Amino acid sequence: MAVAFTQGTQLGPDDLKITLKDAKGAFVDPYAISYSFYGKGGNRGVSEDYLIGQPYREPVRASEGVYYVGERVSAGFLPGSHYVKWIIKREENSPLEVIGELYFTIYKE
Predict the structure, then answer these.
(1) What is the pTM of this model?
(2) Alpha carbons 79 and 106: distance in angstroms, whole number
(3) CATH number for position 19
(4) Number of structural domains, the chain?
(5) pLDDT at 2
(6) What is the extent of the structural domain holding 17?
(7) Second label for 50, Cα 20 to 30 Å away, from 15, 44, 77, 84?
């Protein structure tokens, strides 16, 4: 299923979200969680993906172990392919860890 938005869309709990569970399947909250937006290089006619806006943004916590992007899609998102990269720190002394990427498309209205 393709996920697509237009510039100006307010993202909510059913859009770009992630669920965290332990080995037994119980929902868990990490010590820290953040996300960063990236655009695919083809949007700009280059091969390298690029960061959009500030890295390490704070998600909205919907419930234990469930987080989502709760911001508006800005004009910084060119039409084309993008992804949000989810990063956690499991415990205070753990390293940062990429735990997933969610891909989406921005299209013109």
Answers:
(1) 0.90
(2) 5
(3) 2.60.40
(4) 1
(5) 62
(6) 4-106
(7) 15
